[in-house]
Design a protein that fits this description.
The protein is an alpha+beta fold and about 375 residues long. The protein is built from eleven helices and ten strands.
């Protein structure tokens, strides 16, 4: 049974790899040279193909039309999607299991918002970070109860993909604790304050938004009193694990391309790959990639085993810390192997060199992950991690 399960995971991964190779990677350079933008018809085709493949519903419950895939299968998919630069792998929305848990029993929310993600009709963005918070769980945005709902006031930074979104998940403080809300992107009182350019060239931007007395109906509040941060932590665990999987794909592609380049590059009568310095550099890359892969898939299996939630939280921090820093080291080494050619924007390693840097920051910086890990060790010891 275990062998059959492993083969089904490999088959699924191969389908995603074929999609990546045929539909996404060929458009990287055009995206890079055009501020991340590709023809709308191509972008739509990417999303349609991704939704048809089942990528938007991997984590959603079967009761709502999802695939309820194991976390191992989801990680296998995100590993292949991580081989793509310019965030072209973000071509589909993702209906996550925790969202359905949060909206359990609320048919309105499930039909209005979540099923739209599942079917590819809607896009979401997550508004949690604030100017003073960074990686800390600090929420100054308020949601004040009023007749029929709430008035939201505050400002959210780095709202990734907001320029493509139909609605926000907004985290705000209420008189009963932190809560999440669905908020329409075009709701009165919502305004974009800034849309800065970043080092990477993505079609998805990371704007700052202000919420000025934005009215949200009671029916658009998610979950019960004080549950907002619980759901956000579920989102963090999912994102940290899938980011880690993407780092595996990024590192794998960089190593493959650097190896192929070194194998055909002539230097002083021999191939570059025959140089011991290059061999050592590639060996370090491969060894670190293998270590990261073992960590990521073990953490995914721990999710599938329903291990202790606090332990899972710490493990997601560990895999994000190690895999993101691993990918940055691989990017640096592989760019060096390519030499001057590695610094060209039409070279994938140059794009990865810029892109993977932010993965050590968002969804919790490396420093924050170390704090989570150390606190877990302090509270529960090694056996509790």
């Amino acid at each position: 049974m275990e062998i059959q399960h492993r083969q089904s995971t490999l088959d699924w991964q191969e389908k995603v790899r074929q999609f990546v190779d045929a539909e996404l990677i060929p458009w990287e350079i055009e995206a890079e040279m055009n501020q991340g933008v590709i023809p709308e018809s191509v972008s739509k085709n990417m999303q349609d193909r991704a939704v048809a493949l089942g990528l938007s519903k991997m984590d959603a419950p079967k009761a709502h039309g999802g695939l309820a895939m194991s976390m191992v299968d989801q990680v296998a998919a995100w590993e292949e999607l991580g081989r793509v630069t310019n965030a072209l792998c973000w071509c589909f929305p993702e209906a996550q299991h925790w969202m359905y848990d949060a909206c359990e029993g609320n048919d309105y929310q499930i039909e209005t918002y979540l099923n739209g993600l599942l079917e590819g009709r809607l896009r979401e963005c997550y508004a949690i970070t604030e100017a003073e918070s960074g990686s800390y769980e600090v929420t100054n945005t308020t949601a004040t109860a009023c007749h029929g709902g709430y008035r939201i006031n505050g400002e959210k930074w780095f709202v990734t993909t907001a320029n493509m979104a139909d609605f926000f998940f907004v985290q705000a403080n209420t008189d009963t604790g932190e809560a999440l809300f669905f908020v329409d992107i075009n709701a009165p009182g919502v305004s974009m304050v800034e849309n800065p350019a970043f080092s990477h060239t993505f079609p998805s931007h990371h704007p700052t938004y202000r919420f000025d007395n934005v009215f949200v109906e009671e029916k658009d509040r998610i979950g019960g009193p004080g549950s907002g941060m619980d759901y956000s932590r579920s989102w963090f665990r999912h994102e940290r694990l899938t980011i880690s999987a993407r780092m595996l794909g990024a590192a794998k592609r960089m190593i493959e391309e650097a190896t192929a380049w070194a194998a055909q590059r002539d230097i002083q009568g021999e191939k570059l790959i025959e140089k011991q310095a290059i061999q050592f550099s590639l060996a370090d890359c491969v060894t670190e990639l293998w270590a990261a892969k073992l960590m990521v898939y073990e953490a995914a299996e721990a999710h599938d085993r329903n291990d202790d939630l606090k332990s899972l939280h710490a493990r997601c921090s560990m895999v994000k810390l190690y895999s993101t820093e691993m990918a940055n080291r691989v990017a640096d080494r592989c760019l060096q192997i390519w030499g001057g050619r590695g610094y060209r924007r039409d070279n994938a390693v140059e794009r990865f060199f810029r892109e993977v840097r932010v993965d050590r920051i968002w969804e919790g910086s490396s420093e924050m992950q170390r704090m989570v890990i150390a606190r877990a060790l302090q509270k529960r010891g090694l056996e509790g991690i």
